[in-house]
Amino acid sequence: MDNILEIKDLVVRYETEDGIVRAVNSVNLALERGAAVGLVGETGAGKTTLAKSILRLIQWPPGRIAGGQILYEGKDLVAMEAEEICQIRGKEISMIFQDPMTALNPVLTVGKQIAEVIEAHEKISAEEAKKKMEDMLTMVGIDPARAEDYPHQFSGGMKQRVVIAIALACNPNLLIADEPTTALDVTIQAQVLDLIKNLRTKLGTSMLLITHDLGVVAQNCEYVAIMYAGEIVEQGSLREVFKNGLHPYTEGLFDSIPKLNEDVDRLKPIEGLMPDPANLPEGCKFHPRCKYAEEICQCKAPEEVSINENHRVCCHRYGAEKEAWKGVSV
Amino acid sequence: MEKEKLLEVRHLKKYFSTPAGQLHAVDDVSFDIARGETLGVVGESGCGKSTLGRAVLRLHEPTSGEVLFRGENILAYSNKQMKDLKKEMQLIFQDPFSSLNPRMTVSQAIALPLLIQGVYDKRDKAALNQKVRELMNLVGLAQRFVNSYPHELDGGRRQRIGIARALSLHPSFIVCDEPVSALDVSIQAQILNLMQDLQNEMGLTYMFITHDLSVVKHLANKIMVMYLGTVVEYCDVKQLFTRPLHPYTKALLSAIPVPDPDVQMERIILKGEISSPIEPKKGCRFAGRCIYATDACRGEDIPLTESEPGHFTACVRVHEINAQE
């Protein structure tokens, strides 16, 4: 498979006065060229930390990449010099941030903010950069005449379009979209997702889409990774994970959402809470909330099992370790 | 048999004065809620749904109209009468992070409404503590949190405090203003189940305000869809989801991404964005974004009319549009 990005055994920690926060624990994830992967998880699962570490945006102190590799086109981003990463950031890999209300600089016009990226990465005159900036605005559906306006003069949906224009200004190979539509209303969300989809088809951009909304993933991605307490517990093709989800957490997520196309009298929530990443449980991180938990789950973290070439899961219910364990306890 | 109406709202308006002119937050809204039922109010940000919820409770004093609670117009009530009425009508707030006083413990926060209304005496600590414990049990908060402060608790638990406070005075009617939108899905399901159980046990009537149509579908009996301060569609839940009639409702429903790779929705992508609610032009507020808009939609305000039995819409071309399909 031709992968544009491969994350191997990535570990990210925040070392605070109150202890070590284990935000990302040994994550393996690959992104096929041209495809879109949806990274799904709840607040505090480590999704944003994972995304930021790809661009080396984790701030030290307190955060640091404590181990692992992030291979982009075969080059390890973790080992790269700061100057080198600056060449990649914004040009080859760019990011759409979660909150369009705070992602833009309030004292610069939107036109200036878009042109800034272009000027930083491409050797072109200010004149040409301005021309390209206007093209970008047109592409995301904003009248170029508004380039001289400031962010506060735009609505939420329009600001997110500006953020998208900045992210796509240098035709990146990889786009990391961190909850790009969470702050927006559904009709505007539909507009923005439609825009991202069209631009991706046109430019052939790969995408890592971070969201907590399973619906957004179903309509926009080919692959899914489900993240819980800093680990990817299940990953695979969209159809495999959505139609044949195996991990108890995946099952719980789908049971908790009220669905428009089905009638249920009562939702089945996942009992309990997400563990504190500064104080993770022993064994499988999900075992305190898992209805299938057995003795082995409390003691030993499960290894990733391949169900088929398009589907991998981290759970003792599907591994061979369980049988071996039973032998030990008897 | 007609069910007993607990709340009737007639031609309610709430305008705010701004330097640019009158902001029509709620513009001529009428509806009923029957006892023990749930009315879902949906719409996008800025459509006036929260203002409506607050105007019904007189937290925003309505500009005009009537709010009848058990047949009595509460807008004519004195302050004294209003204070008594608040035992009956309560509110659950949207954001469990900002709606609790950070300097009050869980027990103090839950006890406060009981003390304000004089249901319990401050000196009778034993009885008050007993009641607080009962309420914590009712909403599923473990007793060990009794002396915790809000910052020590997660969103789901904080929202449980908000619910316990609202329930402390045994109200019959609760306005729930986006009670689960700040919560993660697994926690959201816990809170929705709790609210459903409480409704069944205590016979509560809810006005449930949200932007999330799937939540409303799960909980509500009737739905009201709002757009820029006006009601565009009002009917039973089933009718709305099986046969939406108003072009805005159709677009809204089609915009929701379904978490199923086999369902490929025919998306109606709306052009443009919600216009300004300040001094809006007469006519259908949605006309600027509507693909069916004609001159007939502009110039005159469009009243909410019964286009099918029990199914109200505010659209002049509703029959035409739906006959085509």
Key traits:
heterodimer, A: alpha/beta, four-stranded antiparallel β-sheet, 12 strands, B: 10 helices, 23% strand
Describe, in plain words, how this protein is organized in 3D.
Chain A has 330 residues and is an alpha/beta fold. Chain A has twelve helices and twelve strands. Chain A has helices at residues 47-54, 82-88, 100-103, 110-121, 126-139, 156-168, 186-203, 214-220, 238-243, 248-256, 295-299, 321-329; strands at residues 3-16, 19-32, 36-40, 63-72, 75-76, 93-96, 174-178, 206-211, 223-228, 231-237, 304-308, 311-314. Chain A has an eight-stranded mixed beta sheet with strand order 6-7-8-3-9-10-12-11, sandwiched between helices. Chain A has a four-stranded antiparallel beta sheet with strand order 2-1-4-5, with helices on one face. In chain A, a hairpin with a 2-residue loop joins strand 11 and strand 12 (311-314). In chain A, helix 4 (110-121) packs parallel to helix 6 (156-168) and helix 6 runs parallel beside helix 7 (186-203). Chain A is globular, with a radius of gyration of 21 Å. By secondary structure, chain B is an alpha/beta fold. In chain B, 30% of the residues lie in helices and 23% in strands. Chain B has ten helices and twelve strands. In chain B, the strands form two sheets. Chain B has an eight-stranded mixed beta sheet with strand order 6-7-8-3-9-10-12-11, with helices on both faces. A four-stranded antiparallel beta sheet of chain B has the order 2-1-4-5. In chain B, helix 3 packs parallel to helix 5 (155-167). The two termini of chain B are 34 Å apart.
